[in-house]
Design a protein that fits this description.
Helix content: 40-55%
Number of domains: 4
CATH class of the largest domain: Alpha Beta
CATH superfamily of the largest domain: Crotonobetainyl-coa:carnitine coa-transferase, domain 1
Structural class: alpha+beta
Strand content: 5-15%
Radius of gyration: 27 Å
Distance between the termini: 21 Å
Length: about 290
């Protein structure tokens, strides 16, 4: 944008209240500052991909990541902070987000593991029809009894290893082994329905197709349907930040190429109809 004369230093002369935000692959300093970046480049250069391989035990495979999204969310936070500052000072400012550092900000748990050398969280447990993510809480007396009954293991209630909260804490790994072994013969929905009634933290590992059919997601209308003028019926994730006074919604589809050119140039920037006609004739805009 600087090459076009549209950098922040040029534009703030016209409007000092301007808030100008941009994202760079590696920021604007350092040996990588002039390198381009993509989402997968970003995932690779932050340890995200390598950490995913460590978890999966499958190096060389494609790893899921938020290489672009982390930078976008970070830019939004910066813009909101700049808007707040402008209310007090009357001045705009420039915001620059390094994609690499933005993604590092979303890897706090992974760096915590790296620094302390201990893996955080349990691996999903294989069950009869997939996997189930489980975290065993410190159960109360009634909670332990309910769990033993749900497992159809009444004998565990009288087992001295698990008779009291301190005893259960001391033999926590044995409880986990018992629960894991029992879960292998159960289906995800049965576990999900039964365990959450006794305050267990866990959930079935859902595929993307499962998520779309999840009754909770459906009731909350987390996805909506739109009929795009060229793409046809499309499924979109609805806005997930719910605001009581100014609720967000999706009112327009992704624009077509050039759909708003005349509206922006004429309606916002004030070009005349003759000027727009000339720009179209010369192929400057579409």
């Amino acid at each position: 944008m600087e090459k076009f004369g549209l950098g922040y230093d040029d534009l703030k002369k016209i409007n000092p209240r301007l808030i100008y935000s941009c994202s760079r692959g590696f920021g604007e300093s350092g040996p990588y500052k002039d390198y381009g970046s993509t989402a997968h480049t970003n995932n690779s250069m932050t340890g995200w991909t390598h950490t995913g391989w460590n978890y999966s035990g499958a190096p060389g495979t494609k790893a899921i990541g938020i290489g672009d999204e982390a930078a976008g969310v970070s830019m939004v936070c910066g813009i909101l902070a700049a808007l707040h500052a402008r209310e007090r000072t009357g001045e705009g400012q420039r915001i620059v987000v390094s994609m690499q550092e933005a993604l590092l900000g979303f890897m706090i748990s992974e760096f915590h593991e790296h620094f302390i050398g201990i893996e955080i969280g349990n691996k999903p447990v294989p069950v009869a029809d997939g996997y189930f993510t489980l975290r065993i809480p410190d159960l109360s007396e009634s909670g332990w009894i309910d769990l033993a009954k749900f497992m159809e293991r009444g004998d565990l209630i009288e087992d001295q290893r698990f008779a009291t909260a301190p005893a259960r804490k001391q033999h926590r790994s044995e409880i986990y082994d018992l629960v894991r072994s029992w879960m292998r013969g159960k289906k995800r929905q049965e576990l999900w329905d039964g365990l959450r009634k006794i305050d267990y933290f866990g959930a079935p590992v859902l595929s993307m197709g499962d998520v779309l059919e999840d009754p909770h997601i459906k009731e909350r209308k987390a996805f909506i349907e739109r009929n795009h003028p060229t793409a046809g019926p499309t499924t979109l994730l609805a806005p997930w930040i719910h605001m009581s006074k100014t609720p967000a919604s999706i009112r327009d589809d992704a624009p077509l190429l050039g759909q708003h050119t005349d509206e922006v140039l004429g309606g916002i920037l004030g070009l005349s109809a003759d000027a727009l006609t000339q720009l179209h004739a010369e192929g400057v805009v579409k």
